[in-house]
Amino acid sequence: MLAERDWEQKDLVERTNLTNRAVSEMVNGKQKSYPKASLNELNAFEITDMNELFKIVEVEVEEK
């Protein structure tokens, strides 16, 4: 979505209350969970459906 708007990560940081680190972790898929406050900040994208941001995948868990 950054590329679609010709934004860099720093542009998203400037348009939100997110930190450089938070944006970097989101962009690089390093966050395992997303606090509601962080998701609310993504309104900078004017998103109407969070499925535009995330791909939900099922992960099989091995039983011990």
Run of helices and strands: HHH
- Report the mean per-residue pLDDT as an integer: 83
Radius of gyration: 14 Å
**Overall outline:** elongated
pLDDT under 50 segments (min length 5)? none
Structural class: mainly alpha
Beta-strand segment tally: 0
Task: Tell me the helix content.
Answer: 25-40%
Describe the structure.
The protein is elongated, with a radius of gyration of 14 Å. By secondary structure, it is mainly alpha-helical. The chain contains three helices and no strands. Helix content is 33%, strand content 0%.
Topology summary:
Layout: H1 9-15, H2 20-27, H3 36-41
Helix pairs in contact: 1-2
Structure summarized in a few sentences:
The protein has 64 residues and is an all-alpha fold.
Supply database-style keywords.
64 residues, mainly alpha, 3 helices, elongated
